[in-house]
Structure formats: structure tokens, C-alpha cells
Amino acid sequence: MTTRKIFVVILLLAGSTPALAVTSSDRDVSLSAEGFGLRQVSEINRAVREGWQAAGISPSKAATDSEWCRRVYLDLVGRVPTVEELQVYTTEHDESKRANLVDRLLGDDYLEEYAGNWTTLWTNTLIGRTGGTGGSLAVRRGMQQYLRRAFQKNRSYDQMAEELVTATGSCMPGDSDFNGAANFLADKLDENGVQATAKTAEIFLGMAVGCTQCHNHPFNEYRQNQFWELNAFFRQTRLRREQATGANNRRYAVIVDRNFAGEGGDPSKAELYYELRNGKLKVAYPVFVNGTSLAEKYADRGEDFGDSGYLEDIHRRRELADLILSSDELPRAAVNRMWSHFLGYGFTKPVYDMGPHNPPTHPELLDYLAGEFRSSSFDLKELMRWIVLSEPYSLSSRMTRDNQSDDPNLGARPLFSHFYLRQMQAEQLYESLLTATEADESLPYDERESMKQRWLAQFNTAFGTDDNSESTTFNGSIPQALMMMNGDLVKNATACTPGSFLHDVATSSGLSNARRVEFLYQAALARKPSRDELVICNKLLAARGGNTPEALKDIWWALLNSNEFILIH
Amino acid sequence: MIPLSTPNGMSRRHFMSHLAGASALAIPALTLTSSVRAAAETLRKNHKSAILLWMGGGPPTIDIWDLKPGAATGGPSQPMATAGNARISDKLPLVAKHMDKLSIVRSMSTREADHARGRYYMHTGYVPNPNIQHPSYGAVIAHEQESKVPDLEIPLFVSVGGASEGPGFLGMAYAPFQVDSNGRIRNLDMRIQEERLAQRFALLETIETRFISQRRGMAALDHAKVLQKTNSLLTSEQMQAFKVDSEPQQIKELYGNSGFGRGCMLARRLVEAGVPFVEVNMGGWDLHQNCFTSLDNKLPEMDKGMSALMEDLHQRGLLESTVVIWMGEFGRTPRINGNAGRDHFARAWSAVVGGGPIQGGLAIGETSADGSRVESQPFSSEDLMATVCQALDISLQTTFTSNNGRPMKIANGGQVITELFG
To answer: Is the preceding peptide bond at A392 cis, omega within 30 degrees of 0?
Structure first.
């Protein structure tokens, strides 16, 4: 937001007193109940309500306009709305204002931010927060480049899945054979592609098969043979290590396909062996999780080379991609992941474990949405639109006496009768602070992105194990609180240097201090200050000897450090 | 007790006097600043602490604590006599001198051979369950010892050089405080006057309290509790405990110049300052490839750090009140794979415990000649956890109410390994 725009908004704030925090009107709610003319939205509303009725609970009331607006900005474009954006939305009187806002956020105006947000989310899903750092063979920038283009063009989800599963080429942008999608598998091909198998199954099929690598697991319906039969699809996939030239001479991967000779000496029937718990070896050939084997598939066509390891006969990863794309699991897993992103919990917990041992909370709705997603040609924006315009997404996070039992945090199966509180991700905080402070608008994308990566790195710990597992201290613990209280990002945000957002608010003429405080509250919390809070703000102003900019620094600091700011509600 | 010096320009009473001024700003319902207390002259210490040496990735215990020199897959380590009854790898000459204070449990037999699941299980005593998050060792012990360390202003549960596992349903107030092995903590510098910080807190408390009262769930209150703890440590003189650099040179040399060594040194400082639970992480044990050449580097580092810790705790009389645990998420296969590595193996492996009332010098249980089976009574994560709790005087009758309202027994009802208590 430019300085000019700020003044427009300040004038708006200073003039009339628009109702910024009113509950959505009844008219709006009824339109929402009808699903904004979208049958998928109506069906979500119907199915979720059915769950409330069955459990004998009633939903919380609708979130305020400001709360909903803040929520949808955070979830779709990865940051809080500016005061101006909030103002535009809350003062609109069109009964389809929600649908209009979603159209805007999914449209051309926000294309860069939308693509940036989903690139961040999917980079973390595909290669983790530490992928591309330390000893990793992935190049984070390469992964991001691929995803950014895909989201900019709204590439269909099935096409993305295919490109990621079958990618060959260099992970490094700039190489003649660069293919950013290759980064997905770059760190997953050790030990004959065990991680490639596990992560492909988790992400694209919603199947947690990792622990079946070693044995049939008591809590998992999948069997050890299924793991290794799926793994057989990755045995033609190899990795070449390259060293980057120049100052940053780290190693990275080039993914290549090679004939698989098999472990039994016959490449035309290339098998692999795995070990049972009793130490015996068993053989495995490529068989998909639904039981489709390449041998049978090709035998049906009168061909006998289904198990061949020669690429000219069978390209196993392409076969796998075909099987994934035609499976029911692909859209189900995508819907589950997406639902979890917006509602805080998926239909299963965890989202990547949707096996028969872990039944979903709303099985019919899940199947319905999966079918609709496939019918939409795997259009991610459509799926997002259905979910964010639904009734469960519109509800307040305030529980009622009636629905407080619906708390997955207490181990209950989610019924989505109120919005579940969840903390912003580190990336959302970063973007929100930049938005709220207009800190770095002039920087080019790459530079901005690398600054962000450096900042994010402080929270990440890699366990250094073969499954690339990692953890973050941006989890509501003390290191996060210290960063919020004393870190550079917040320090800069509260510095009140000329040209900054805070400075503009503090020095604009014709604005009362009460209005200034309200402006900060809107920017951080999307609401007005309460009477009690205004009293304390006034005392802070007195404590600063009437120095408004200094007092506003204190207020801004307190707002950014609050639970209400960091928790999406 | 380490001498607690006052940081420049700040004293706790000074801070308190300003808080009194700040309180005129507001009368918050939830007093975040209430944890700020007058500096204790001495920290009362009537509790026991624990140090967990966490070997992330799953160490090949067949090459370390339970050698199989006769077996084809026994590896190059040779058994060596120690100060205790057990023989261990000849790559651990320094630890061998302290094996009178440590005992090996050679009959660990668990089911989780996946890193994330194994890490969770060994830290909590429970297998992962999608509907409930169980508290880890550190959180459980912090929770149980908290009332015995009322003057402790720094976190009850510190994880050095790694992430540990979370507090589960006990809430973020018992989350591990993660620091690197140099004890450096980011963003500790307040940069503003204490008085002004207190005034900011007055507004912050009001916002927090308002939001908590709106019944939006546990996360709102957890946030406030963590803020309170953060505020408490910001001005605490006890933060000196993290300054490993202030150790005398000879002590630094004793621990060795490695991340794990410094981590062990930091653990001793923290325990000395009254912290009930410290986890020190040594990673890189996921030895699917080149197991033995890697061990040539890893074991000397472990030997130095672990032996120094035992020596130092002993010298200072802290070993009587400090339980030491050495373990990873599982062991590794007796079978040596095609890359000269060993893979994940949970069925038969070793853990090591000592300190407090735990008897040293023993080897409990045994495995078959090739190390592939436990041939005595097997022990689980639950049993080990129950043993540690017993050693720390934490009642095994302790029951938590989990977030879904169900009672959950501490250590998941594990059985104490009685041989360890003489």
C-alpha cells in the first residue's frame, strides 16, 4: 500500500464510522446457506449440518466480516489484509460480497501473492522446510520456480502430480536440462527410493506406508509387500550428483532414468527382494496399491514385458503416474489436504493417512468433493472456492456451551461446528508483518525470497535421518515468543522510521489519536479497540509524555505480540 | 550452585520497582508479570534431575554396548573390560572408566522402526495416536518436578542441539526450550527499558485476557502461559547457566570441542542451576551406509562428551541427584547391508542408564549370539520410563487427565526394571 492509499483510508476512518466489526447480516447468511449458487458449497453445508444434527449440537454464529476477511486473506494469499482491503470488504453491501472477495483473491489482482503463498505451502509439503539446505541435493529455488509457474497458470492438480512423479532433469535453475519438478525426488532416492515411495504414497494417495517398509504393521492395513511393489516403480530412477560452479558450489541432483537390471539377474523380468521380519527374502514386481500389476496389464494386451526393467519396454514411473491419475485416492488425498488447510483439521488425522484403519469424519462428503474435484478437471481454485464459501468456514471460532465438546484438540473427531483456532505459520507471519508495515515492496522477487528464507531458517531443525524429518520452533514455544518480543523483524516493524507504515499513521495530520489507535488495531487484529484497551492506550500515551509516535510503537508491539494476532480465528 | 552475577544495568529488584509503576496502567485479570519474583538468595534444591543423551537416527548398539565378536556380522569393535561388570566397545575407553556408575539394558525390544514413530514412542512411552498427543519425558518430568523448584526462572525442560518431542496434552508451557550447544539464545536482548517493557505488557495482557475469555480454545491460554515464561527468563540472572563460554578451560577440554561435548557441559550447568530435565542431542546415527567408518568418528566424540559428563557430575556431587539416560529411537540390524551399513532394528537393542539411585556396573538382559533376538525378559520404552520416574522419586501412581478426559498413567503403566535398584 502506498502512502497515498494510506491517506485515503485514514480519511475513510476519520470520516464516517462504518460498522467494521458487525456480524454478517442475516441476508448474507441465507445466501451462504444456499451456497452462493454453487452446488458443491450447498452440499458441503448440507453434509456438515447433518453431522451437527446427528451429534445434537448447533454451530457457533457466523464470524464477523472482519474475522472472515482476515481468515480468507491468510489462507488464500498467505497474509493478513491491509486496512484498506479490510475497509473495502467490510463496507461492501452486496449480498454476494464473500464470493466477490474470493473471486478477487483467486483472480488476476492477487495472482502473484496467490502463487507465492501456494508455492510456499507446496514447497514445504514436497521437500520440507529444510529441503535445499544443509546437505540436501534439492535446490529450493528450483522447486519454487516450478511451483510458482504452475500456480500462476492454475495448472491442473493431476498434471502437477504427473510432472512431479515422472520428473527427470537437473534441479538447478539455469542448467540446460533444468526441471524444477525434479526437486521433489532429489532427496528421496537413497536406499533404493524408500522415501520416494513413502512420500509419493503419502502426498498423492493419502497412504502412510512408511512403517510397512519393514513389516506388516498392526495399526496399518497396508502390507509390507505393497510397499515394495510400489517401490518397484522407482527402480529405474537414478540420481546423478552435480556440483554447482561459482561461489555457492554446493552439490545438487540430476534425476535420470536408467534400465533396471533387477536383483535376480534378468532385466526383462526385473524383480527386487525385500526382507521379512523372520529374515527370509521375498520378491516384488511393480504392482499398484489397488492390485493392478504391470505384468497383468500388459498380458491383457498380449505383451509379456510388463515386468521388464528396460526403459524401451516399460517406463515404470510413467506407468505409476498413469495409475495414480486414474486412482480414486488422488482426488481424495488432495481434498483432504485442502480441507485441512482451510478448516484446521482434515477429514482424517493425519491428512496423509487415509487408510481403512483411519476412517474419515465425513466419508460421503469426502467422496463427493473428490468426485467434483475430478469433474472440475482437478481445478485447485475451484476446490478452494467451494471450501472457503462454505458454512463451516464462515463460523466464528468462539465456542458455545452447546458445541464446546466439538474440540479436536481434546481428542474429539471434528464436526466443524465452529472455526478451530490455529497458529499462523512462520511464513504467514513474515508476509503479514511485511504487509502490515510495507517493509520491502521495492525488492525484486528473488532477493525478497532469499531474505525470507534466511529468516525462516532460524526456526528449523532437521533430524538428519533418512526420512528427512524436521521440526520447527515456530510452534508457540519460548523461542518464538522471544523472536516476537525482541527479534529484528518486529523491531523493524515497530521502528517508526520515516516512510514506514507506523510513521505514516503517527504523523498524518487531521487524525485523532483514538483514530490512530483504531488504525493499528484494524491492521493487526481486524477489529476496533475495546473501551478498556483504549484506556490503557491513553495511559501509554501519557507515559510517553504525549509523544504519539513513541506510544504507537508500544501499542503496535503489544498488538503484534498478542495471541489474537498470531492465532487465525 | 554457580555464582549468579547481575547482568549490566539490570537487577531484579530494579525491574520489580518499575513493574509496580506499570501496574498502575491496568488491572489485568491474568497477571503475566506475576512470575517475576524477587531473586532467590539460593535456589532450593530438593529435587532430582535427568539428562537424556539422545542418539538421533538410531545408534548401532551391537557395535557399542552389546558386542557380538563371534558373529559373522559382529563388526570391527572388540569387547573391552570396564570399571563395571559389562564389557563394551574398545572405541569407548573413557566411558569404560565410568561403567561402574552406568548400567546397560541389553534387552530393549520395541516395535517402532520408523524414525518419527520410534522417536515418539521412546520419548513418550506411547505409540503415536492421531487423537492424542502424549507428553514426552522432558514434559512429564518438568511437570512433576515443577513444584519442587519454585524459584526456577528458566525453562524446566531444555533441549540442547535438537528438537526433542513436544509436551502433548500438558500444553506449551512444558514444551522443550531448544538451544544450540553453545547455549546461545536468539533474541534475548530486550533493547528497551524494563519499565517500558512492563508498560507494553500491561496492554498485551489486556488483549490476551480478552481473547482467552472468548472461549476459542486452548491455544489462546497456552500463548499467554508461554509469554509469562518468556518474560520471566528475559530478566533472570539464572540465564547465566546457558553461558558455557564462562567454564574454565580445563573443563572445556574435558568435554572436548564438539557439539555433543559442549551440549553435555551445558547440561551439567543447567542441572546445577536446578533445571529438572535436559536433553542433549547427538545426531547422525542413521548409518545405512558406511557404518563402521562413521563409528570411527562418532564414537570418540561420544566417548569424550559422555565420560566428561559422568566425571563432572560425580566430582560435583551431582550424580546422586541426576539420572543419566542414553538411547536412540531404536538400534540397528545385526545384518550388514550392501552399503556396509546397518538398517533400522527395534527388536533387540540396548539403552544405558545411571545416576541417582540407579545401580551402576550392570548389564541387564541378553541377546542371542548374533544379536537378532532378546533371550531374557524384554523391556519396553514404558519400562525404561517407569524406571527413570522411580529413580527421580516420581510416583508411578501418578495419573494425568489427557485432553480427551481420559486418565493416563505415567509411563503408560510400564514396569520398573527392578534389577537396577539393588
So the answer is: no
CATH number for region B49-190+235-421: 3.40.720.10
Calpha distance B64→B87 (Å, rounded): 10
B25 in contact with A, Cβ within 8 Å: yes
List the single residue in A with minimal CA-CA distance to B130.
Answer: A349
Give the span between the Cα atoms of A123 and A108, in whole angstroms: 22
pLDDT in tens, A371-385: 999 999 999 999 999
Mean pLDDT over the full length of chain B:
89
ipTM for the complex shown: 0.89
Q: Evaluate whether A195 touches A178 at the Cβ level (below 8 Å).
A: no
**pLDDT given at position A439:** 60
Q: Which of B35, B122, B190, B216 to mutate to test the interface with A (most CBs of A within 10 A)?
A: B216
C-alpha cell at B105: 539394558
How many Cβ atoms sit within 10 Å of the Cβ of residue A530?
A: 13
Q: If phi over 0 gives left and psi between -120 and 50 gives alpha, with beta otherwise, what is residue B256?
A: left
Segment 164-183 of chain B within 8 Å of chain A by CB: 166, 172, 175-178
pLDDT tens, A342-374?
A: 999 999 999 999 988 899 999 999 999 999 999
Closest CA to A340 of A358, A366, A359, A364: A366
Cα–Cα nearest to A234, from A191, A179, A183, A196: A196
Which run of H or E residues covers position B350? strand B349-355
Residue A366 C-beta-side C-alpha neighbours within 13 Å: 22
Q: At B407, phi and psi to the nearest 5?
A: -75, 140
Closest CA–CA distance from residue A472 to any residue of chain B (Å): 8
Can you give the residue ranges of every domain in chain A? 135-148+163-326, 426-568
Is B323 touching A (CB cutoff 8 A)?
A: no
- As a whole number of angstroms, the distance between CA A147 and CA A155 comes to 9
Strands A169-170 and A251-257, bridge-based pairing: antiparallel
Cell 453431522 belongs to which residue? A51
User: Domain residues of chain B, as ranges?
Assistant: 49-190+235-421
pTM, rounded to two decimals: 0.88
Beta bridge partners of B160: B179, B280
Instruction: Give A426-568's CATH code, choosing from 1.10.3470, 1.20.1530, 1.10.3130, 2.30.30.
Output: 1.10.3130
